[in-house]
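Figure S7 source data.
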Amino acid sequence: LMEVNSVSKKEENFMVESEREKELKAFDETKLGVKGLVDAGITKIPRIFYHPPDTFNRASDLGHKDYAIPIVDLARIHEDHSERRRVVERVKEASETWGFFQIVNHGIQLLTLEEMIDGILRFHDQDSEVKKEFYTRDLRPFIYNSNYNLYTTYAITWKDSFFCNLAPKAPTPEDLPPVCRYILLEYLNQVLKLGTLLFELLSEALGLHPTYLTDIGCTEGLFSFSHYYPACPEPELTMGTRKHADVDFITVLLQDRIGGLQVLHQDMWIDLPPLPGALVVNIGDFLQIISNDKFKSAQHRVLANSIGPRVSIACFFSTGRHPTSRIYGPIKELLSEDNPAKYREFSIPDFLAHYRKCLGDAYVNATWMTIFLKILGPRTARSETGTGRGCTFGALILHPERPFRVQN
Ligand code: OGA
Ligand code: NI
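Tokens for the predicted nickel (II) ion complex:
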């Protein structure tokens, strides 16, 4: 009997999985992304977008109002030594406790930021036939699609994105869509320049020589994802961006005025409110590792919203797209007898290979999630509160461990 049961169970899993695959494929083949669904006037989201509920609550739901992600003003750091020391101190504190901060007076003009947001909107608002030409899952200098991990994640998200690399190999204007090519190149170049300053401040915050982090290659690679989050008819059931930490040295993010970005801090979701003219900076896994866990690569997510579209552009400092043979590990100058290395040394390609393998293992849960959805029906993806049922999807989902951690 047990054998019969396990065979039919396998059979059912297979059916569920192939139905899901078919739906994903049909969605992908429209080449119009989530915006295409919204433009077609859907009022219920397809079940491939359903997410499991989250295990953490919003700080605001718990009545905590005094948590705020630090804002750092860079205006006078070049003229005033004591001001620079204060800024380094704030960057240090923010990187140690939050892994996130916002910067103002960073040197990139408001007009450039607004034009960048506008450029992303212009790309998505183009005629469908023109836009489809850019839709691809192949490695090209400009990649537009919905959910780059469509076929490899257990739950897809309510957004469309385009990818563009800048360093070490920049695209030519001809590689990019005419509606946003010049602003995209201009903006990315300015972020690359800003990166040098940020890594100086972060080096100083670690007590190192100001050029330390750039000297070991932290500004060698820069790539960007521009996101477009359409308004969602059932925002409670899905996510704009699921909970994750960035796999890079740092990320510089520009968001528009809609909001929805949240940072996981002390097991609570803290809103990262839009601030006109500001850029969000967050520590990624590589910097957490080479700082030997002094700096935190915090998990974050973006809620789906009934208001939209929301637009953002995330710039990742990492050579992931053009791997180098450089070896990284906890910075020797930071280690001591009391603070031994928490990680083994690795090359970026090794790290990413390991990370992708973990993500592949996590995909097994796509089947389980679909089965549970069949039994229990859709549940709110925002938090556990108010679901009133005993079963936790969250527990079924594997989160890739930061690889190369030494077992102390
Ligand atoms: C990311 C990210 C946040 C946003 O792309 O890694 O976290 O606001 N984006 O779009
Ligand atoms: Ni991120």
